[in-house]
Specification:
The protein is mainly beta. Helix content is about 0%, strand content about 55%. It has no helices and 11 strands. The chain has strands at about 5, 10-15, 20-25, 35-40, 45-50, 55-60, 65-70, 75-80, 90-100, 100-105, 110-114. Strands 2, 4, 5, 6, 9, 10 and 11 form a 7-stranded mixed β-sheet that branches. A 4-stranded antiparallel β-sheet has the order 1-3-8-7, with no helix packed on it. A hairpin with a 2-residue loop joins strand 9 and strand 10 (about 100-105). It is globular.
């Protein structure tokens, strides 16, 4: 099972930007899917963005504002978040699917103030 460690969360004003990063303990080339989910208080965890077999998928609510990218040399997946809104406030989790096993990072808090 791959170990994942996120970084880059924090507090930002509405309209601002943040960049989240997640380092995987396993080679990116052995991972089928890598991405980000988020969970706001009282809500279910939801997909934000993911790269699966080279294809990128975004939640409708973040399209045009968030960009997911992978650095294969650093085994890192990043999420650039622009034009942040208060409704983007949540704990953001990095995830990967490797050999049929899904792993999760501990999560990083993103808070957007209005």
């Amino acid at each position: 099972q791959a170990q994942l460690v996120e970084s880059g969360g924090g507090l930002v004003q509405a309209g601002g930007s943040l960049r989240l990063s997640c380092v995987a303990s396993a080679s990116i080339f052995s991972i089928n899917e890598m991405g980000w989910y988020r969970q706001a208080p009282g809500k279910q965890r939801e997909l934000v963005a993911a790269i699966t077999s080279g294809r990128t998928n975004y939640a409708d609510s973040v399209k045009g504002r968030f960009t997911i990218s992978i650095d294969t040399g650093k085994n890192t997946v990043s999420l650039s978040m622009n034009s942040l809104k208060p409704e983007d406030t949540a704990v953001y989790y990095c995830t990967c699917l490797r050999y049929g096993t899904r792993s999760w990072g501990p999560g990083t808090q993103v808070t957007v103030s209005s």
